[in-house]
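Please review this one:
***
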Amino acid sequence: MSNRRAGHVARPTKCPHPETPPETPSGTSSGTLSGTPRRTSARTFLRASDGVPIDAVYAPGAAGPDAPDLVFVVAHGFTGDADRPHVRRIARALAHHGAVVTFSFRGHGASGGRSTVGDREVLDLAAAVAWARGFGHARVVTVGFSMGGSVVLRHAALSGDDGGPGPDAVVSVSAPARWYYRGTAPMRRLHWLVMRPTGRLVGRYGLRTRIHHRDWDPVPLSPVEAAGRIAPTPLLVVHGDRDGYFPLDHPRMLAEAAGDHGELWVEPGMGHAEHASGEELLHRIGDWAVARAG
C-alpha cells in the first residue's frame, strides 16, 4: 500500500450508471447562471488519480434563497458503500444543511479495485471532493466515519501539503488516532478479516468488501499526525463514550493534536460510526459545518 499524495482530478468514466445520465459538473446547466450550483441529482463513476473507478452520487439538498451554498462529501466506514441504508440515512440528514456527495471507496459496492483499509482511499476522497467542487458550491465539508474518519483527516493534511484545494471544514466521527490498534475485540476481529486469507474471503463474500492482500509499504501518515497538520481548517472530532472499537483516548489524542482549530464532542451513550449516529447528532453536525466552513 502507498502513502502517495491525494490527487484532485475527477473524471466521469464512459460507463455511468444506466439509471442516470452522465453528469460532468461545469457550473452551468439549463436555467442556471455560471457559478450557480447545479440543482439536479447525478450519479456516475469517477477516476481516482491511480485509475480506480469510484461510484459517486450527488444530491442537491435543500433549495431556496436561504439554503447554504455548501456541499458535504461523506466518507463511509469499512464495509459500507454509497447504497447502504445507513449511508443513505446520513445523506438524507445532511441534505437539510446542504448538497451531499456520497461515494463508495475502492473495493466497496460498485467501485473498482480493492480496499487498502484507509491508505489509497485518500485518492478516492480527493476525486469525490474535486467532483463536488465542480458543481459550483462555495464550500466543501468532508464528513468521515470510522475508516472514513481517518481518511478525511489524511486528505485534509495532504491537501494542505501539496497546495491543492482541500476542504473548508472536516468532521471525523468514530475515527482511530493510530494504526494497528488491537485493544478491543472488534478490532482484533477486523485485523483477522484484513490480514488473513480466510478473513478476506469472508470480507468478499459475506460483507461485499474486496480487500487487498498486500501490507502497507510505506505505512501512511497516522490520523493523529494528520490532525496536527490540518490547521487552519476547522476540525470537529465526534466520538461515542460507548464506542466498542476505539476507546476515548483516540478522539482525545486527535483533538489535542488539532489544537485551537479542533473541537471534540464526546457523545453520551453513542456507539460506533454511522449506525450509532442519531438524527439529532447529524443535524448538529450539519449546523456546525454551516457555521464553521467559512
